[in-house]
């Protein structure tokens, strides 16, 4: 080894490992060899060996002795050491190594006895010892020579000189000599002292050097040589006189328990003993006897120490180990108690003391002052980012508390797999733990947001919870309440933790006192009244009686009112009209689910199950997953990870996860998908298998509803939209073909409306599902509804307002409205209308001039309508509202009964759809606030999903009290504009009569006391009765009603909720009962019908009179002149031709008065028009022409072959015998 650098060499024969070890130990002992720390013995070459010393001084001391005698099992060996190998040394080889042996001689004998160098010195320096040795050897005829160089005694003897032949042979002589030197070794001894103190005493005390004892000093040690007894005696005296040191394995803290008493004992009985206190040992130093006695006393005291183990929690033990609790408490207990107490932290807290009472008091103090608190992390504080804020706040408070010393520690205990933290652990001094606990409590109460679900005892509270909260006087400044009907009526209370708890408690207390009752009003129109003009009265009753009043469905209605409608998509095939509750055609759809196409985000849907696509077992692998995480927070991520870690998922498998309360569902089904790999690829099979599993799981688990998105057409899975729709609808269809759908009653298909291909997906979904309603004459689904179904409302004057999602160019209304800026005709609506109407309309539009806020009327072109109204909204909502009024006015002027209006300025103009909807609907409300003469249907046709939804939202708010139809009803046949309605002699009044059983209105009352509810019911009943009246109409007042009037009255009766009965069936009188305003409106309508009847009679007379005086004629291309009917004749005469005319063959023509031409709306062919004005005594034939202004005479040549010529000729021949006329003359 590198540290053993100082080598010595020696020779020996065949040393074994054991012998090498003994020789090494010899050289390690300084007093025997002079050596010290050395390495292993190594064989170099031949019989040469090497040993290396660590210190140079040790090497030098070994060299001082030329020979070293060592006892080995095979005998004694004498070694000669040198710095260099024996082959390189200048010393003779004979002196390198030798064994002790007798050397017999024929004349003399010689023996060499190796002796200790210091014993040789003693035999030399002590005359007495030398004399004794010489004498003993002389007796056997020998002499001795002390050889200091070889460290041996050389004995020589002469056989011949031996007295009396003392020994006859060498062996006997050797035995005697050996006996002499054995006696020498037994008589004398060498004591080597290496202890510095002992060495010092032996060197400095001259009394130790006597005639019998010699002291030899060497570097670092002293050798005492003399007779054995004398040396032992003197050494014993030295040892007794020198200080003794004894180490006891007693720790410093344990020693402190007995230090006071032991120190007192030592001071009294062993004053010369010193006590040295170290960490793990106690050292006693002094006279040997005193040290031994003191050690015995200390051990006796330590045996009296009592111990007590205090079991504390691991966290508290860890705090004790890492803080200065132990020295602090030891010092404090030492001041306060008679006996000190030692504390040692291991697995338990070990208390040690001489007093049991002190141990008990120490335990009480520790348990009193130290504490551990495990506090649950509430709500959002259990997860980032709130958890990070909690850590920051607590660590800041901890650092402040630990500014002077370590007093408290904070740790966060993880919850189950996949969660962040379930508990916050505080450990330390109780006072500081309490402070941090208050910090955490304050943050969780005031800052951390949480949410709790509270079950509602009455489903009616879902729609009026905010009003109920106001009723009980509860403030919810920082708390939000969200109601849900899944899986049971409940409210989600969200906000700061302590406010959530307070809110929950307040709601529970109020719900216990809640009183619910119903009031049934026997009479018509009660609900309508309290929704409209009676709303203020109802609100006064609510505020005065401290109750809530809610309308319920009338008792006779089997289904609640649902704001849905139906429509036929433009690109879809025609389908049967059906509503939410309507059965599909064919056999009854027993135990079959309903299909609903919903527009919106999947995460906002209400239902039992939401189906979510995923890729590679990751929640956020799709946009839907990311939106779910955004809405539900980390709670959904924990639940997802927890479930995903417990199962193996393969493509097509479904992972079921319980939904957090913030979502409107109870379960989430995650379908493991594959990216699109072609129609025949595996991805379609995987997706189909996953969708089927979702539907089967719903049936197996008794779930009622499930919501599917269009899976696959996003940027992750990359399905073509048509293929994604095909996979979904095929699986829904196959599910519908099963014998029973179990409890599954509703399947939602959710389409997000703001995607580029949303409209395309909607049409594809609707087309597939509508064609799958029946299979083999059997209904496989109850119904199919959509958020884009037509929404029909009866507004003022009985006008039907309908919102339609579709193509305005397919509308068959009397008038169609086109939105344009009159310069650019390429926006979507304008371009579509002009393309469908043809170039004639586009030319009229370009040539037309219109001022701001007015309407340009043109012919319909090829559109199936009577006219087109062109308007410009100019991105001005007030202007749009005025334009709607102008549109209605023009409809009235042209006697149009229906009009289709687009979303003016919501397309290329870019105006917000909600603003446009508000403006158009306000215009409709103003225009219909008074009774209209002819307009009965206003259709708002919208081609974009978001625009339709905006209009629907605004309409439901603006016309909340209107009658909303769920099923689209085709309009009843009407007379053409300008034509006289058929007489009403056979008009059936029985259809106006209503059933008394259907005239009951139900109101729900909610209050906090029975008295308040009873008083409110009484007051509401009195308010209603005060608003009712009855009017009887006589037969003659009803005589002028047409069938159209009857239909209008039916709608009015339905709208106003009136009760109509015949009082005297034989006389035809009607009694109308209901709200005063409704009864008055009926009276106004009947009076208006009388006036209309008079106007119609006047119009008939005007048409008849004009028909006798003026004849408007039409001549189709290549045809004869034909006289137009009276209505067309009257319209042409008065220039009311914007809506076109109808000839005797019921063909519709568009008229250009400036060129006296008409255009066939179906074929586009043109025809000539002319006006004939008859004389009082002569009616012109149709084929005659008018004379120009100022003409007094006109001659028209006649061809002999013409029919007119032949007719005139025949007339002349009857009176004269000769033909004289060759031309026809005309004069005024």
UniProtKB/TrEMBL annotation:
Residues 83-102, 970-990 are annotated as: Disordered. InterPro entries: Macro_dom, Macro_dom-like, Mono-ARTD/PARP, Nucleotide-bd_a/b_plait_sf, PARP14_RPM_1. Its main location: nucleus. Keywords: Glycosyltransferase, NAD, Nucleus, Transferase. Pfam families: Macro, RRM_PARP14_1. Residues 86-99 have a biased composition (Low complexity). This is Macro domain-containing protein. The lineage of its organism: Eukaryota, Metazoa, Chordata, Craniata, Vertebrata.
